[in-house]
Amino acid sequence: MLESRHTLDVKKHQIETDLDALFAEVGAAIEGAMQCLTSRSASGCGDLIRHDAQLNERRRRIERACLVLIVLQQPVAHDLRDIIADMRMAAELERMGDYARDIAVSVGELDAADLRPVGLADVLAMAGICQRMLAEAARAHHGKDAALARQVGAADDELDARLKGLVGTVLEAMRGDPALVSNGSRMLWIAHNLERYGDRCTNIAEQVVFRVAGEVVELD
């Protein structure tokens, strides 16, 4: 029994280590996407797009480890909740990496015109909210803090409000100057990806509550 418990703890620790790395990589990805946006770096966009394959592989490795652990160790109670929550969080993080990649693709399609008329400030503000949400979700996960996790969803309202304001700004700009339509449409798509990134942060926070308290909640 003690040997089985030790094996389970070791395997769970390795899963947590990989999940921590995925949290960090996804946070770096959204930061890198915003750096690409402000610098218009083609090489930076390319690096970010290529790195997405590594995020996908890390998610698959976590998922495989979770499934093997369930089959071989047959965990119950809080151990099973931990493993299920980790597997779900890895899936959410992988999708967030996809959004960062998609932003980099959109940045590569922008022309050289000034982005301030088509909502650059709002996009950067949305990215800041996303980074804060992810950081809080990660802290809640590491600290097993259900109360902090419940606060993550509140920031999603702020993100939605920013998106609404940006849509109005961009549509007005495009109506006033057809030359802004190309960049404006891409900025709207970038903002949409950020909004979805925030939704995924909320989903992760829900998994923290499930893991810690055994409750299935909707925080948005």
What is the CATH homology-level superfamily? Phosphate transport system protein phou homolog 2, domain 2
CATH topology: Methane Monooxygenase Hydroxylase, Chain G, domain 1
Order of helices and strands: HHHHHH
Range of helix content: over 70%
Q: Please, what is the average pLDDT?
A: 92
For the biggest sheet, the summary is: none
Class from secondary-structure proportions:
mainly alpha
Overall shape? elongated
CATH architecture: Up-down Bundle
| CATH class label | Mainly Alpha
Structurally, the number of domains stands at 1
Beta-strand residue percentage = under 5%
The total count of helices amounts to: 6
Low-confidence stretches: none
**Compute the gyration radius: what is it?**
19 Å
Q: What gap, in angstroms, lies between the N and C termini?
A: 41 Å
What would you note in describing this structure?
This protein starts with a helix and ends in a 7-residue tail after the last helix. Helix 4 (120-143) runs antiparallel to helix 5 (146-176). The protein has a single domain (2-213), classed as Methane Monooxygenase Hydroxylase, Chain G, domain 1 (Up-down Bundle), CATH 1.20.58.220. It has 220 residues and is mainly alpha-helical. 86% of the residues lie in helices and 0% in strands.
Throw out a few tags for this protein.
single chain; 220 residues; mainly alpha
Lay out the secondary structure.
Elements: H1 2-39, H2 42-73, H3 77-108, H4 120-143, H5 146-176, H6 181-213
Helix pairs in contact: 1-2, 1-3, 1-4, 2-3, 3-6, 4-5, 4-6, 5-6
